[in-house]
Amino acid sequence: MRQAAEAACIGKVFRPSLTATTFGPCNEKLEEMSKAFVRESDTGEDLHDDQEIRPAGKKNYMTPKGFRDLQDEFKHLMRVERPKVVEVVSWAAGNGDRSENGDYIYGKKRLREIDRRIRFLTKRMESAEVVDPAQQKNRDHVFFGATVTYANDRDEEKTVTIVGIDEADLSHGRISWISPVARALLKAQVGDVVEVRTPAGGDSLEVIDIRYPEPGAS
């Protein structure tokens, strides 16, 4: 029942196909290259993969743009940044004592950081359920991807766009769909007053405007 109610607030979902077009041949060599350059820990650091930021039981919804942003970062790391660092590490490895070789030590550390981020991005893209808000039919209500203008108890107007967890950026008005404000706004329509509880306390929000991207704009 909970999953059905959640889906009703989201909209049409599709799972992107993660083929060689997404990852390219670079991904197949990641593990092999990592073993070559990150086998031993010169700094003694134990760098774990980025922690899963999706709460247990919550799906990894994101907009088409959010998914493209993850793809772009992945491709940049694999095709640009990682090869550069591997080249530096390879060069530095031939320059004497590695224990006192700053280029080698920093390069190895940076390589571990890049590989950890690549693994994290891979997991996020594999679990992604992409929702295109431009395809939303019921534009009179707030669903995932909506841009909502509301007024609080202090007559302060704010405009937010409800997006995926990875896309949230409060400084640009993008809030996660699982945030208290977004959850209070979901399914509301213009004129509705909803109650929200945040760590700062309770507030009443009046929905003033609801907008969605036009088809083909995502």
Keywords:
single chain, 218 residues, alpha/beta, Helix Hairpins, 2 domains, five-stranded mixed sheet, three-stranded mixed sheet, 6 helices, 37% helix
Largest sheet: 5 strands, mixed
Based on DSSP secondary structure assignment, what is the total number of beta strands? 8
| Average pLDDT metric | 82
End-to-end distance, in Å?
Answer: 30 Å
CATH superfamily of the largest domain: Transcription elongation factor, GreA/GreB, N-terminal domain
Radius of gyration: 22 Å
The percent of residues in helical segments reads 25-40%
Strand content: 15-25%
Verbal overview:
Helix content is 37%, strand content 19%. The protein is of the alpha/beta class and 218 residues long. The protein folds into two domains: 2-131, Transcription elongation factor, GreA/GreB, N-terminal domain (Helix Hairpins, Orthogonal Bundle); 137-211, Transcription elongation factor, GreA/GreB, C-terminal domain (Chitinase A, domain 3, Roll). Strands 6-5-4-8-7 form a five-stranded mixed sheet. Helix 4 packs antiparallel against helix 5 (102-127). The model is unreliable at 33-47 (pLDDT under 50).
